Amino acid sequence: MADEIKEIPTERMVINFGPSHPATHGVFRNILELDGERILDAEVEIGFLHSGFEKLGEHRTYNQFIPIADRMNYLSPLNNDVGYVLTVEKLFGIEVPPRCQYIRVIMCELNRIADHLVSIGMHAVDIGAMTVFLYAYKQREIIYDILEFVTGSRMNNCYPRVGGLVTDVPEGFEEKVKDFADHFLPTVDDIERLLTRNRIWVDRNKGIGAISAEEAISWGLSGPILRAAGVERDIRKDEPYSSYDHFDFEIPVGTRGDCYDRYLVRMEEMCQSTRIIQQAIANLPGGEVNVDDPKIILPPKERVYHTIEGLIHHFKLIMEEHGFQPPKGEIYLATEAPNGELGFFIISDGTNKPYRIHVRAPSFINYSVFPQLVRGHMISDAVAIISSLNIIAGELDR
Amino acid sequence: MDYPEGNQALAKLRATFPDSIIEVKEFRRDITVTIKKEALLSIMQFLRDDEELRFNYLASISGVDYLKIEGVENRFAVVYHLYSFKNNCRLAIKAFVTEGSLDIDSVYPLWKTADWQEREIYDLFGITFKGHPALKRVFLPEDYEGHPLRKDYSLEGRGERSRFDYEEG
Amino acid sequence: MGLESRLGDNILTTIADKFINWGRKNSLWPLTFGTACCGIELMSSIASRYDISRFGAEVIRFSPRQADLLVVAGRIVIKMGPVLKKIYDQMLEPKWVMALGACATSGGVFDTYGVIQGIDQFIPVDVYVPGCPPRPEDILNGLLKLQKKIERDTVLPQER
C-alpha cells in the first residue's frame, strides 16, 4: 500500500492567499504555486490600499500633510510624524529646543513599543496563541491612555508641528509615563514565558524564512529584519537625530535571520525602548517646546490676543494660501521607525506647498523579499513569515 | 552625512568619471551629484564596488516630474539615495530623463531592492527601466490608463473611482 | 418565509418577529473587512477592555458564508472595490453592512484618484459610524444602533 501511495500522481496547484484572508494583516495578495503543501514559487500583488498619499501631499501645505503622514503606519503614527517634521526642519536648517526633542523621543519610543506589541501579538495569533494578543493589547490600552492624555486622540494623533509641538505636555505626564515604564517589563516576561521556549513556537519559527546579511543588504531591508540577519544597523545610533545620542541603549542583533530571531529582536527592542523612556523622563529638561521663530510656528495665544505682531504672524501662518515657505532645495532624511528606515525625500520650490514628497516606506521594501523567503517552505510557514515581516498595508501601498 | 567622507566620494567620482558629471550640489550637508543617464550603471557599479567607498546599500529611488519648476531643462529625473555601511555616509545621485526618451538603465543587477522601487516609478510616472526583470504596474490595476504622479494629472483622477462596473459575484 | 407570511399581521407574527429579531440582533457574527487604521480600532474593541463579546458579536468569521454583518473598516480603493462587492454578494441573507470610519462612509481625508468616495455607491449600508478613527465606544454605539434597527424587522414580506 505504501508503494502505491508513492506513485499517485500529483499536480501543481496555484492558489490565492489574500487579499481578504484572516492570516494576512492588511490587504495584499499572494499567489502561491504549491506541490502538495510545499511552496514552489510565489508572486505578490499589492496596491489594494493605494490612496495616493504622495500626490495628496503636493496639494496640501506642509503642516496639513502631518495628519496624512499619520495614516501611513497607523500602528505607530507618531514615528511617521516625527520623521516628516524633522525632514522639513532640516530643510529650514533649524533645530528645536531640547525639551521638544526629549518629548518627541518619549512619544516615538512609546509608539515603538505599541507597534512591536501588535506585531508579536498578531504573530502569535497566527501561530495559534491567542493569550499573547490579549496581554499585548492590555498594555497597548495603557499606552493609548497616555497618548490620549497628551494629544487628545488615541490613534493618528498628529502631535508634532514643524518647529515644535502643538502644545506642551500637561501636568501629570511624567508620573503616568514613569508608572508605565516601571510596570511594563513584567508583561514582556509573561510573553517570554509563554512563547520563547515553547516547543510549538520554536518549531514553527526556527529556521523558517532565513536570510543572510549580504542578501538582506542587497534587498534593502531595514529594521528588525536586518538586525536579525546579523547586521548592526540602527539609525538612532549611526545617524542620531532628536538627541538620541544622549541616551544609553543597546541594539539587539540576531544570527540566523529567521522568524525566531526577528521575534527575539523585537522583544529585546521593547526592553531597550523602556530604558530610553526611563532615561528621558528622569532628565526631561525644562523650557520652551517651540522654536522661537514666529514665521515657522504659531506664536503663543497671549501674544496673538495682545500684540499686533502676534496677530499678524498668526494670520500669515493660518490663512488660506499663506503658511510658511521653506527655502528651495531637495532634502532626504531617514529615521528609525519600528519597521525600519523611514525616509522622506522632499523637494521644495519655495512656495507654501511641497513640490514633491516621496516616502521611503520600510514595509514596501521589506515585503519585496517575500517570494524568496517562502520558496521551499510549507504553506503554514508562509503565514509565519508574513507575520514576522510585520507588513503594514498603509505604508506598503501609500 | 559625514562631510569628509562625502567629499572623498566626490573626489573619486570626479577623478574616475570626469565627463559624466553634470552638476554637484551641496545643501544642508547632503551632496547630490547629477550625472548623465548613459553613465548610470558604470557609476553605480563603481560606487558599490570600490574598496574605500563601498556604497552597498540603496536606500531609496524616487522619481520627480520637474514640469512646474522653471529653469530645469529636462522634465523627469530619477534620484538614487545611497548609503555606505563602511563609512556611515550618504550620497544622492540624480539622472535626468527627457520626455522624448523616457527610459533609463535599471540597477536591478546591482541591488535587488530596485525591483519594486523601479516598478513604482514606472507605475506612477511612466519611466521605463531597461534590463528590469518584470516591469509592470505595482499599485494600480493593470488596465489603468495614465500615470498619476505626473504634474498634468489631476488629484481626483479621471473618473476611475466612480466607475462601478463590477461583475456579479 | 412561507407559513409566517400567510398568518397575516396579527399577534402571532409580532411574537414571531420579536423572537426572531431578538435572536438575530444578539448574535451578529461580524466579517471584519479591515483594511486600514479603523481595523486597528476594531481590534481594540474586540480585545478585553471594550469587549464586543458583551453584545454577542465576538465570533469573528472571515468567510462570507458564515457571517452576517460585514464591517467595512478602512479606505476602499479602486483595486479593492470588486473584492468587496464579491464578498458582499457571497454573504447569505439576512445580512447587514456597517461602514466604519470616515473613509468607508465618504472617502474621508482622501479625495484622490485612488479612493472610492464612500462604499454606499455600490453596496447598501445600514449603519454609518463616523470618526477618524472612531473610538471603540463609537463602534459599540454603532452596533447598538444596528441592533435597534434589527428590532424593527418583520417576517412579513415588505417593500424594500
The name of the CATH superfamily of the domain at 3-117 in chain B reads: NADH:ubiquinone oxidoreductase Nqo5 subunit
Give the SSE string of chain B. Answer: HEEHEEEEHE
Helical residue percent band of chain C: 25-40%
Average pLDDT, all residues of chain C: 87
* Strand order in the largest sheet of chain B: 1-2-5-4-3
In short:
The complex is a heterotrimer of chains A (398), B (169) and C (160). Chain A is α+β, with helices and mostly antiparallel strands and 398 residues long.
Describe the protein in words.
The complex is a heterotrimer of chains A (398), B (169) and C (160). Chain A has 398 residues and is α+β, with helices and mostly antiparallel strands. Chain A folds into two domains: 2-45; 53-397, Orthogonal Bundle (Cytochrome-c3 Hydrogenase, chain B), CATH 1.10.645. Chain A has helices at 2-6, 53-57, 66-70, 77-92, 98-127, 130-151, 173-195, 199-205, 213-218, 224-228, 235-238, 259-282, 301-306, 308-318, 362-367, 370-374, 379-389, 393-397, and strands spanning 12-17, 29-35, 38-45, 160-161, 164-165, 329-337, 340-348, 356-360. A three-stranded antiparallel β-sheet of chain A has the order 1-2-3. Chain A has a three-stranded antiparallel β-sheet with strand order 6-7-8. The longest helix of chain A has 30 residues, at 98-127. The model of chain A has no long low-confidence stretch (mean pLDDT 89). Chain B has 169 residues and is an alpha/beta fold. Chain B has a domain at 3-117: Beta Polymerase, domain 2 (2-Layer Sandwich), CATH 3.30.460. Chain B has three helices and seven strands. A five-stranded mixed β-sheet of chain B has the order 1-2-5-4-3. In chain B, strands 6-7 form a two-stranded parallel sheet. In chain B, strand 6 (103-105), helix 3 (114-125) and strand 7 (128-130) form a beta-alpha-beta unit. Chain B is elongated and about 60 Å long. With 160 residues, chain C is an alpha/beta fold. Chain C has a single domain, classed as Rossmann fold (3-Layer(aba) Sandwich). In chain C, 38% of the residues lie in helices and 11% in strands. Chain C has a four-stranded parallel β-sheet with strand order 1-2-3-4. The longest helix of chain C is centred in the C-terminal third of the chain and has 16 residues, at 136-151. Chain C is globular, with a radius of gyration of 17 Å. Chain C starts with a helix and ends in a 9-residue tail after the last helix. Chains in contact: A-B, A-C, B-C. The A-B interface holds A 46-47, 50, 52, 54-56, 59, 90-91, 93, 215, 217-221, 231, 233, 238-239, 329-332, 334, 341, 343, 345, 347, 349, 355-356, 358, 360, 364-365, 368-369, 397 and B 1, 27-28, 30, 32, 56-60, 62-65, 68-69, 79, 81, 85, 88, 90, 92, 111-113, 115-117, 120, 124, 137-141, 148-149, 155.
